[in-house]
Design a protein that fits this description.
By secondary structure, this protein is of the alpha/beta class. It contains 5 helices and 4 strands, in the order E-H-E-H-E-H-E-H-H. Pfam families: EIIA-man (PF03610).
Length: 133
């Protein structure tokens, strides 16, 4: 039975990257699935490594997310997250993400984070194909 109060979608992950990468890919997930509310977008624009780390740590604490997705394996967001999660067991970092990966993660409602991440990673890798000569 509904009490008439709309429940907020719990945040499952933070998406971090350069420029508008995070908000753009989350927007695409929302347009396709309506499930963009599972994610918090973070842009590193204008921030140094320590600022990125501090801001992402605050976002992680506020959202209770257990997964952080980043755009580049050796980018500043990834470096900051790698430093940050040393003291945060159970937080997973996934780098070099694509839309297929994020869509798959968004559609896994009941999966634990580690399982959801692995399944999404498999889907994301499989979605990259070269056509033509």
């Amino acid at each position: 039975m509904s009490d008439g109060v709309e429940q907020e979608t719990p945040v499952r992950a933070i998406v971090a990257g350069h420029g508008t990468f995070a908000s753009g890919i989350i927007s695409a997930v929302d347009q396709i699935t309506g499930r963009g509310g599972q994610f918090v977008a973070f842009s590193n624009t204008g921030l140094g490594l320590d600022d990125i780390q501090g801001t992402l740590a605050a976002a992680l604490d506020a959202s209770h997310a257990r997964v952080i997705f980043t755009d580049l394996p050796a980018g500043s967001c990834t470096m900051a997250v790698r430093r940050m999660i040393r003291d945060r067991p159970g937080v997973l970092l996934v780098t070099g993400i694509n839309l297929s990966l994020l869509l798959d993660f968004a559609m896994q409602d009941d999966a634990d984070p580690a399982h959801a991440v692995q399944a999404a990673l498999d889907r994301g890798r499989a979605s990259m194909v070269v056509h033509g000569a």
